[in-house]
Design a protein that fits this description.
With 288 residues, the chain is mainly α. The chain folds into 3 domains: 57 residues; 68 residues, Alpha Horseshoe (Serine Threonine Protein Phosphatase 5, Tetratricopeptide repeat); 115 residues, Zincin-like (2-Layer Sandwich). 64% of the residues lie in helices and 5% in strands. The chain is built from 14 helices and 3 strands. The protein has a 3-stranded mixed β-sheet with strand order 1-3-2. Helix 4 packs antiparallel against helix 5 and helix 9 crosses helix 13. The protein starts with a helix and ends with a helix.
């Protein structure tokens, strides 16, 4: 190997090392932000700023910079930096999502709606942008936009596993469901009777098309509740069913243990619906 080839190899190795360092510092900064650790985010932002592959104009530096300003409670400055990211990196879906979330947190849903509408035009294959558009449209009671956004989310996701799967097996989900039911008070457990509890990967299209729920629901109770199921006019509805959606639960969790806990909460939530509890009562019980 000649000297020129050796030098190119060395430069490539150095660049890869620095890129790894950039990724490590950035992710440590995100973790510190999630923990509310201002000093930690500042420290990682400084490290990113000093790297040749980083610098103060890099996407990673700016993404940590708005988080620093947010933790410092400089909300307008944080918003300005987040907006600048979408100007400099117009096709970065994460930047668009973050700007939209900031606007929602600032109680500016109309502005967030415009950000997500523009984002879905630039990134039409990004399911997260369509989903967030649907949520904001729901908040604003823009029902046509909500329906179209959730339908597009479903089309993009229904055949694809989550990008970062935990691989919670169906047997694990079924076992967690069974254990949850066994721990119910005897009266509640007996009331379930012939309620079918199913495990599926992802909601079926009719759930979105008929505006039953959004495409990322964790579980669904469908059918007559306990008080109504013996009435003659509920016979045509068929037996009550509780469905647990494995992929959607995995999407919200960071470990198998966390996913199993979420399965338990979801089962209890849907059992609560069967027993006649509404969303407010379930939130009060910590099962929202």
């Amino acid at each position: 190997m000649d000297a020129a080839t050796l030098e190119r190899s060395r430069q490539l190795s150095l660049r890869l090392t620095r890129n790894r360092a950039l990724s490590v510092h950035f992710n440590l900064g995100l973790r510190a932000y999630d923990d509310g650790d201002l000093a930690g985010v500042v420290r990682q932002r400084s490290a990113v700023g000093m790297l040749p592959e980083g610098g103060v104009d890099s996407l990673e530096f700016m993404a940590l910079d708005w988080r620093v300003k947010w933790l410092e409670e400089s909300r307008d400055e944080a918003l300005d930096v987040a907006r600048e990211i979408t100007v400099r990196y117009p096709n970065d879906a994460d930047g668009i999502l973050e700007l939209g979330h900031i606007l929602v947190d600032l109680d500016r849903p109309d502005d967030a709606l415009e950000v997500f509408l523009d984002g879905t035009k630039k990134n039409p294959e990004d399911a997260d942008l369509w989903y967030e558009l649907g949520l904001v449209a729901e908040r604003l009671e823009r029902w046509d936009t909500r329906h179209a956004a959730f339908r597009k989310t479903w089309e993009l996701e229904h055949e694809l596993e989550p990008e970062h799967r935990l691989y919670l097996t169906e047997d694990q989900v079924v076992e967690t469901v069974s254990q949850t039911i066994e721990r119910l008070p005897p009266m509640a457990r007996d009331a379930l009777g012939n309620v079918a509890i199913l495990v599926e990967d992802y909601p079926e299209a009719w759930i979105v098309d008929e505006d039953i729920a959004d495409p990322r629901i964790l579980g669904l109770f469908d059918g007559p509740d306990h008080a109504a199921e013996h009435q003659l006019d509920t016979v045509s509805q068929g037996p009550a069913r509780i469905t647990i959606y494995r992929w959607n639960i995995e999407r919200t969790c960071g470990s198998v243990e966390e996913a199993e806990e979420q399965v338990e909460i979801t089962v209890l939530h849907e059992v609560g619906h069967y027993l006649g509890l509404d969303e407010d009562a379930l939130h009060f019980l910590g099962l929202g």
